[in-house]
Amino acid sequence: MACVPSFLANHGHGKRTKVIISVMLPLFGGLLLLFLLVRSFFASCKKAQTKESESREEQQGYIYNVLGFNGRILHDNIIEATEDFSSDYCIGSGGCGSVYKAALPTGQVVAVKKLHRSEDNILINNLKSFESEIIALLEIRHHNIVQMYGFCSHPKHSFLVYELVERGSLRMVLSNNEQAKELDWKKRLNVVKGLADALSYMHHGHSQPIVHRDISSNNVLLDLDYEARVSDFGTARILKPDSPNWTSLAGTYGYLAPELAYTMRVDEKCDVYSFGVLTMEVFMGRHPGDLISYLSSLELTSSSMSNDQQVLLQNTLDQRPSTPVGQSAQDLVSTMKIAVACLNGNPQLRPNMQEVSQALSRP
């Protein structure tokens, strides 16, 4: 058998190696390119899904970018701070929802109003109009109106985020004998004036009036100085000049204007009536109840108010504060007359809140 020269054998081996390398390199390069393309494709899909998810969350109404937080983070912080709205953190309840106290990681403490399920359905079904309402309300800045920071609408729960007002609702203060006694007549008159100023600002301080629709002692909060703050704009509506402003019934029984029994058209005079009821509640220390129908029939003026009517009104006053005297007594009588005018059964005969605010500001 002939021997193959060593240089020829090495040369053959080298050729085979070159062939293998020339085949493998393009194959490996192709596989690497395919891997990079597939990876890029899946990364692109994931990014698109993330954007779609974020867009879907925005459409579902996750909380707005407020308080300097990302909306989703603030949402999660509130859920954690209230332990998924545990009753341990509940500080009040009303017709539309329950209010919870939430301490955020920044140290700021806020009030969170979680709307009842029936309200959730309304918010989800009418999210676009609801968002436009909230966006406008976020622009409200008034000393006697609780500042709203944002909201969240979600299939599981919907809530609004407000600044926390220390003493809680007016109803809570009036139901506590010690606090009601401390709420003297000067403070009570100031509460009524603050409420009138807030409603005047809402009705007349914007190009489009904002109607609260649920003015009640549950939705008026008091700070440490007993200054009134209007709260809970979950049912508020912006009145549009070229619209009939028809809406579903909203509000708290006992404060609703009588015309809402036969019409769903909402206007500023509905708030005026509720203001009249609440003013009487501030002075009586309790809801006026059946006395409202009698008061609605009165036409009190300085010349026509009878002695019997004066005695009746004086006898309805809350007995826990000391008896009003001097200027406080005079202011009390004049303010009660204004409240009765606001309770007129004919909405056209009620004063508007700008007139009320100006009347209460006169020395």
From TrEMBL:
GO terms for molecular function: ATP binding; protein serine/threonine kinase activity. It catalyses: L-seryl-[protein] + ATP = O-phospho-L-seryl-[protein] + ADP + H(+); L-threonyl-[protein] + ATP = O-phospho-L-threonyl-[protein] + ADP + H(+). Pfam families: Pkinase. Its main location: membrane. InterPro entries: Kinase-like_dom_sf, Prot_kinase_dom, Ser_Thr_Kinases_DiverseReg, Tyr_kinase_AS. It is a single-pass type I membrane protein. It is an enzyme of class 2 (transferase). GO terms for cellular component: membrane. This is non-specific serine/threonine protein kinase. It comes from Gossypium schwendimanii (Cotton).
